[in-house]
Amino acid sequence: MQRHFEMELESLKTNLIKMASVVEEAVGSSLKAFLEEDKQLAKQIIEGDKRINLLEIEIDLAIIDLLALQQPVAVDLRLILAAQKINNDLERIGDHAVNIAESALTIAQTGVHEPMLNLPKMCELAQQMLRDAIDSFIHDDPNLAQAVLQKDDIMDDMNRQTSKDVIGVMKDSCEMIEGCLHLMRISHNLERVADLATNIAEEVIFIKEARSVKHGVNKF
To answer: Measured between alpha carbons, how far is residue 106 from residues 66, 99, 185 in Å?
Structure first.
């Protein structure tokens, strides 16, 4: 019975890593579609969101079965509870990848080459935070997870500065308002990807150290 439970737990973690890999690829592709104005790639990301949604449902059902049938405790229970939140966070990151792809598609279709501002740096930072958060989960590394948390303020500052810069561009050039609104949307979605990567990192610390660091509070 214990052996069966361990296999189910390992299967859950494997499927979650698979989900993370698909989501990370979606985010990377959406940013590539934006930066290179690749309309075909943007359409593929939007269509591919169905796969992410199906994976989320599959993992959710596995978690429900584990909780109902195995009555886990201690670190196993923390892993399962954290897996449920990480699964949800990954699905939401997939939604943000779709949002970025939709804006990339609109920008590419307008044929207007918008100023990039801080966005390439934000793309790089969001991808790095997501990659590190996933790696911290795969390798049970709370130190790497902690490093992700420390980068969130940098992303918040970059998002605020980008919003100011975009508003400045709109004031100087009314014909660029539509494109600029999509730039602001992409900036906001990158900031949300970073927030959700931070959530995943917090869950890794919860699993390994049995302490919550949400909202900057060490509860245990």
So the answer is: 43, 11, 12
DSSP states along 15-84: HHHHHHHHHHHHHHHHHHHHHHT-HHHHHHHHHHHHHHHHHHHHHHHHHHHHHHHH---HHHHHHHHHHH
**Angle 137-139-142 (CA atoms, 0-180°, nearest 5)?**
65
Q: For the chain, give percent helix, strand, coil, nearest 5.
A: 90, 0, 10
Q: Summarize pLDDT for 31-50 with one digit per residue, the tens.
A: 999 999 999 999 999 999 99
Whether the per-residue pLDDT at 216 is higher than 70: the answer is no
**Residue 115: its pLDDT value, please?**
72
- Round to whole Å and give the CA distance between 79 and 14: 13
User: In sequence order, which residues have a C-beta less than 8 Å from that of residue 105 and are 6 or more positions away?
Assistant: 33, 39, 42, 43, 46
**Residue pLDDT, tens place only, 20-29:** 999 999 999 9
